[in-house]
Design brief:
The complex is a heterodimer of chains A (about 190) and B (about 130). Chain A is of the alpha+beta class and about 190 residues long. Chain A has 6 helices and 4 strands, in the order βααββαβααα. In chain A, a hairpin with a 4-residue loop joins β2 and β3. The longest helix of chain B is centred in the middle third of the chain and has 15 residues. The chains are: A alpha+beta (about 190), B alpha+beta (about 130).
């Protein structure tokens, strides 16, 4: 039995031809650093729950990924963030949905798991719970980046398509019409 | 969407998922990420799973839990269970995306049916490995 951490930063229309090398290096460096941090926690006999919480928190703090800072925009030009966490030892779980004032949604999900008898909170109730539990709260524009906003504008200009997080990236890079989300290269 | 799964030295599994949703989504639309069993699941007896992709399909297939169920009831090893969910069941409904998973023995799986998936893993004491494309 070998302690291990695995992370993901989303899936989609990611191709070598569409990604410039500098941006690719930034993605690889971020993934590498976050995996390494997770390994450090496990190596110090930290729990799997702590390792995944910290890994996802770091992913939320990185504007390259669609969670926390760098989250995509809704049709209304707002953010709606969701997160969940589950402990395999006890089958305890915590989740929040539809929030935009909690800096780290995964910490809120973890708090739901640890400090409430419930599994899921949404919207205003989730934010009230997070605030009462002392979690860091921010203004919604904390999560906004210009790149994501440009993706929204292009999606709305191109037949109002709904895009997966990384499908929107290629659309922005190529300056073309939004990709067909059913287009697959598997 | 982002996620992490881990197995610790005590043999415990955990999974976590977080997302900003989909660009231009309708306000109030929720995907698989906060839904236990769809975008996130962990059970010490089987596996920890975090999913990413077209949320509606991962919800309808209860994708994360399905990996665990295939292992527990059909005795599939992790690699086969994860591939069956992503490359057959999700794809059959027109879903795009992937998942990461680790089982109670430390085996890992990172299948995806899309063009790429930002991913990485690291066993304690070994070098971290990251990937983007196929």
């Amino acid at each position: 039995m070998k302690p291990v951490i695995v992370i993901h930063g989303g899936a989609g229309a990611l191709s070598r031809t569409a990604m410039d090398s500098e941006k690719e290096q930034r993605y690889r460096a971020a993934l590498q650093a976050i995996v390494t941090r997770g390994q450090e926690i496990l190596a110090a006999n930290g729990s799997a729950l702590d390792a995944v919480t910290e890994a996802v928190r770091l992913l939320e703090e990185c504007p390259l990924f669609n969670a926390g800072k760098g989250a995509v925009f809704t049709h209304r030009g707002t953010h709606e963030l969701d997160a969940s966490i589950m402990d395999g030892r006890s089958l305890d779980a915590g989740a929040i949905a539809g929030v935009n004032h909690i800096r780290n949604p995964i910490l809120a999900a973890r708090t739901v798991l640890e400090r409430s008898p419930h599994v899921m909170f949404t919207a205003e109730g989730a934010e009230t719970f997070a605030r009462e539990q002392g979690l860091e709260m921010v203004e919604p524009d904390f999560f906004s980046t210009d790149e994501r906003y440009q993706q929204l504008l292009k999606a709305q200009a191109g037949n109002d398509k709904i895009l997966l997080d990384h499908d929107g990236e290629r659309q922005t890079q190529q300056g073309a019409d939004p990709l067909d989300p059913d287009r697959k290269f598997g | 969407t982002v996620g992490a799964v881990a197995l610790d030295a005590a043999g415990n599994l955990a999974a976590a998922t977080s997302t900003g949703g989909m660009t231009n989504k309708r306000a109030g639309r929720v995907g698989d990420s906060p839904i236990i069993g769809a975008g996130c699941y962990a059970n010490n007896r089987t596996v920890a799973v975090s999913c990413t992709g077209t949320g509606e399909v991962f919800m309808r297939t209860v994708a994360a839990y399905d990996v665990s169920a295939l292992m527990e009831y059909a005795n599939l090893p992790l690699s086969q269970a994860a591939d069956k969910v992503v490359m057959e069941k999700v794809l059959a409904l027109g879903g795009s995306g992937g998942l990461i998973a680790v089982d109670h023995q430390g085996n890992i799986a990172l299948p995806f049916n899309s063009e790429g998936m930002y991913r990485g893993y690291g066993y304690v004491g070994k070098e971290a490995v990251v990937g983007i494309y196929r």
